[in-house]
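Database export, one record per block. Field names are fixed; values are copied verbatim from the stored entry.
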Amino acid sequence: MKHTHIFFDMGSTLLDETDRVCERIATTAANLNMSAASFTAMLEHAAQTHPYVLHMELPGGAVWSPWPDRLDPLYPSTLELLRELQGRYRLGIIANHATDTAQRHNIAQFFDVIVASEAVGFAKPDPRMFHLALERAGCEPAQAIMVGDRLDNDIAPAKKLGMKTIWIRQGWGGVPEPKTAAEMPDERVNTLKELREILR
């Protein structure tokens, strides 16, 4: 069946979270009386097996510092990618994000469907996020591609529904390798530029 729809995650997929992640790591490290370098090295080791270390339990009951409250920028290739795909596919967003994130970035016009966790009251990997997006788009899972940075939140639940999956290894979600067949993406890329080549 021909793929007619592409759904995107947002953080570390279309939006570059690097600066906010680095700030959060540095602040959390300071709260733990560790250097940012030592804490980052600990995270890098843990990321080999943990699906997303920025949500992992910290030693001694410590807690992560809050996410810095500002908007992540688009990756430099995001707009070019969306402009290229818009005429060839129907586009959507399935993201654990604020309802107005796409509007604030002036990219909402590219998307026919936006399912944001803040608006619907549940979050990925809950399969309802994906069911709702497919229902609103009026497409079958086999017609859809899911692009995301996390194996646990994006790849596994989309694959279970029968969507084609593309894992974009940007950010901390791109560090661990798939542990089961359920997490194995159909394709993997490292950048949005590589994604463009695959989708051509």
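Remark 1: The chain is about 35% helix and 15% strand.
Remark 2: The longest strand covers residues 90-95.
End of record.
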